[in-house]
Amino acid sequence: MKTIENINSSLNHKSATNGWDILIAYNRTRINKLLTQQYLKKVAGGENYPPFNHENPKFGLHFKNIAMGPPKVSFEDSNIAGSAVLVRLKFISGDIIRTDADAANPQVLQWDRITAASDYAVKIRVELKYGTGSVSENGDISMHFDQGSLLNVEGMNELPDELLNIFRNYLKDNAMDYNLGTLKRDDASKKLYPREFIVRTQRHPDASTRAAPDNTDGAVLLFIATNYEGKGSYPTNEQPWIIPHDKSATMLISDRLLFGPLLAKQFAGRVKDLAWSSLFTPEGRRILQFTQGYVQTTDVIKGSYSGVGFHGMMWSSDSSQNERPARLSMADFQLGKGPDNKTIIGRFSQQTFTDIFTDSLAAEVKPITTVENVPFKRTGTFNARLSLDKDSNIVFNGSANFNLESAYSSWAGFSNSAKEKFIRKTMDNLNKGNIFELEDIKTFYIRNVLFPGENILSFQDVFIPGDLAMYGEVAESLTALTVEPDEVLVAAGQKLQLTASLPDGSAPKGLIWSADGVGSIDNKGVYTAPALGEITVAKNIIVTAAMADGRTGSAVITVLASPLEITTCFINITERNVLEPFQLKTIVTGSGEAVSWRLESDLDYPGNIDNKGLYTPPAAGHYQEGYNIVTAVASLPSGTKKQAIICLCEKDTTTAFRVNPPIKLAMQPNDKAHFSTRSRDFDANQWELIPQIGKLSEPTSAQDGKMTVWSCDYQAPADIVQHRPLLIRIGQKNRPWQAGYSLVELLPSTSAWSRVCSLSHLEIISADGPASTSIYGNGVNQCTVLIKISPQDINGENVILPAEDIYPFIELVDYITGEDISREGKWAYSNKKNEYNNQRNIHTRDIGAPLYITCNTGEKNKKIAVKVRLTNPDAERAIYSTDINSESGMDNGVSISTLQPVDYTDKNNLSISSSVPVKINENIAFSIIKGNGSYDEKHTGECYQHFINIAPRSEIKKNIFKKIEVKYSPVINNTVNQSHQSWGNIKDEMSFSCLTSDGMQSCSVAGYKTGSQAEPQLLSSAMILFDANKIESSDHVYFDGVIYFKYKGGDTRYRLAIDKLTVHPSVSKNGVVSFVGYSFHIPETKAEPVGWSNSLNEVRVTVTDQYGNSSLLKLRWDSNQNYISPNIS
């Protein structure tokens, strides 16, 4: 267990920021809370993953309506050298069905029903986006699941790659991202702000010895460089863990920053002409040392003295004897941390200093007035204690307590009052109330470190073990309420007490509680889940507590359909010589009740089951012919029961009747289903329902060529109170060993939509305004509309509905014709927001369902209305619509116009710019080799850096390139070099060899054509171009080798020798195609390449802007007009 005390001990007298200005760490618990909050918003807005469905008869696996729960992060595979985490997307509802390998009519072997407490999950390894990055406008730390590596599906053993690829494509096709934080640049504030950062992940050091799930603990670490330029190195495995066990976040301000500009800034207004340095003591402690500066008195210090035959006056002055306040020198004053990790102590390393005084001696012999540098000795200390005030500002409360002495003869005769005034006035001006604040730090983490929702960093403890350490939480806004428990499971039919507290721990009065979703909550915070049978899948509920002044807090409740679930509804067990027990698992929610098990069967040998649900089938030789049914019943003391069907298959039984469908899911009251089987040799004349719930018709037969088709109809009962599996067994009379079966799932009527009998309001609005919006007609650019709806039940009471329950009953229609807009094939709509939707989210307190519209044709206009279908037989009307012919009196619509897609091969749609060349080196060695064999050496060769940026033209809305894919054949030395050079001691040397082989992939190399009108630095040069993003990501970026030139019209050669020239290009702009070129130049001559030739490969750049407009650009450089900026076609 990591406490503040032992973390402080591990940080004592050393910095843990690795040279960066600031380190922020926050842990798994808080990260997962941030993810859950975003997940709920996505679900409420219809932006979560759609249900996963896949049928794979080859492997006998069928996934039905699998819903994904909130992502959960873990760190068991994390390494401080990277920024990867493991993410589990739990399955929270749906069915997984295993069948045999018959492709046409498979038979079910096992049926598992998923709940939010099941163990199934997609496991992904995700690199946090912006593992390194700069903070331009905002630097986001986010997870993109579509870019992760799918590891496996937990609970499914080892799935074959073919099936894993299905899940990979599902994640890719439904791109989903979650934000873990944002660093915001704030240059205008002139305070502490972030400029650059890296992200790393760290596993908890004790994780390997801890029990699950704590062995997955870890943290996200943000190493931040600020405007104080503290960019450090990458952390190593020695990086200490800095989050205490009872906190969720820690922030370290580097000792270099604290005992440097931050503390120096506090003294700058108190110490005149302050200069300082940050250095280490011989013991390795960081200190702040003042190298010059002084504190002056408020008034002039005057004093008189006298003796036998003389008297005099001294006063503080300048060198011209003019009066001025006295000055206490602060040079050699050192500030460092105290031994208790809570104080800053200051002392003078050198005690002596001088100040100017005028000494006027009136003697009997001759009066004398002189200007003296009076020597003083200063002693004492500065002590300030560190704390957080009520507003979470870092406060140092303390003062300086100095003494002054001087051996100067006249000073010794001074009156005590003058001496005391000197020290007292300087101390008053230095201490200024004995307190100072480091307000920049609070400003930094409140203004510049942002989290999704209203979450912020909040700190409760502060220390100085080495760096300045602040321990606290990633918490909801300081003005918000905290609701506990903040994330919990309950089951239908249960109650849950929630509480709310203010930041100081007190309980607020007069709270208003509300529940968004199923169930209800009273004014005491008691949540009542819906009754058993009212829901059959898990529902996420957001509970909110609100104060009269607007402060709120929220919690997430996941309501399960039952307090008891058996994860396996059906299992087929075939007779074997070796007994293989099967574990039936239960999930109990909301109580500590123990589960009891029993078997129900008419068989002589049904097997047995223990009190933990481990079922042991009968021994070989004790199976009856055919398919025989055992029901395993799990019960709670409160009376809740659940059943699983066990089908015992005798080893000689054959599947003579394969039934279509092999399983019928989600049958609700009075639903009907048709089952059939085909056979040539056997009669399926015996159909049996187990257990007998509902009605099964008499079987009928009909000929289909040589095959006989046997069929039967099943009708579900009118009253279904809970989920229940059934089995329909098919056989031939008196021949039980020739049989088959199908399965049925009974569900109660669950959708709250079925209670809706009328709508008092129906409206469609746009994100850009109530009535109109526009999109590009490229098939992917979306606009957002919100369907606002006010539903009531038969008694006129409002019905609360999540968006997911509304979507199946909504259509978007043409305002004029009333027909679905997707019928034309040009317009489409979805309940999933894609990455090319740039409109804001619509926030409303009304019940609403957002929909997202696209069009694949430009220059179209359509006014769109909404149509809603009610299913309750007592509904006021079956259809409500807002089209022009609506009978509901609610006609309204949104007008959408489409723009022609932008073609970026048209240069009028592009902004192409090249930067002013920047000279990055001016002392590159080169040899001048003359025709007679003599040579000379110079060190004036130059290297210039050029940036070429290609972006959407600024007039095209406010646009950037969202996706950029650059492809080219890399240029290497061998494709450029044509011949070798020899002279002097150099034999057989390549004419061009400066490209290294460890990561730098040039896209173009050219020598400038002489005779062109150009800037002087382009003449006698070689231009080497790179994709700026690729060169940025290279760990070893340098040139090393030679480039040969030859004087035009002469025989003089030039050998430019580049010796491991490292280059550090600036980070290219996000959303811009960026290339960087390096031109190597020999000044004051006109020379051309010799022994090497241009390598001008075509570069293909596929760009897609943030609105989904996509084009393929073909770029090519040359040795003249397009030497820097490429030709684009």
Structural features, described:
With 1129 residues, this protein is mainly β. The chain folds into 7 domains: 252 residues, no CATH class; 161 residues, no CATH class; 82 residues, Immunoglobulin-like, CATH 2.60.40; 91 residues, Immunoglobulins (Immunoglobulin-like, Sandwich), CATH 2.60.40; 94 residues, Immunoglobulins (Immunoglobulin-like), CATH 2.60.40.10; 148 residues, Immunoglobulin-like, CATH 2.60.40; 222 residues, no CATH class. The protein is 8% helix and 47% strand. The chain is built from 10 helices and 79 strands. The strands form 16 sheets. Strands 14, 15, 16, 17, 18, 19, 20, 21, 22, 23 and 24 form an 11-stranded antiparallel beta sheet that branches. Strands 2, 3, 4, 5, 6, 9, 38, 41, 44 and 45 form a 10-stranded mixed beta sheet that branches. The model has no long low-confidence stretch (mean pLDDT 86). This is BIG2 domain-containing protein.
State the helicity in percent bands: under 10%
From the alpha carbons, calculate the radius of gyration and give it in angstroms: 40 Å
Number of strands: 79
Give start-end ranges of low-pLDDT stretches: none
Q: What is the count of structural domains?
A: 7
Proportion of beta-strand residues? over 45%
The whole-number mean of residue pLDDT values reads: 86
N- and C-termini, Cα separation: 63 Å
Profile the largest sheet: 11 strands, antiparallel
Shape field: globular
Tell me the structural class. mainly beta
Count of helices? 10
Protein name: BIG2 domain-containing protein
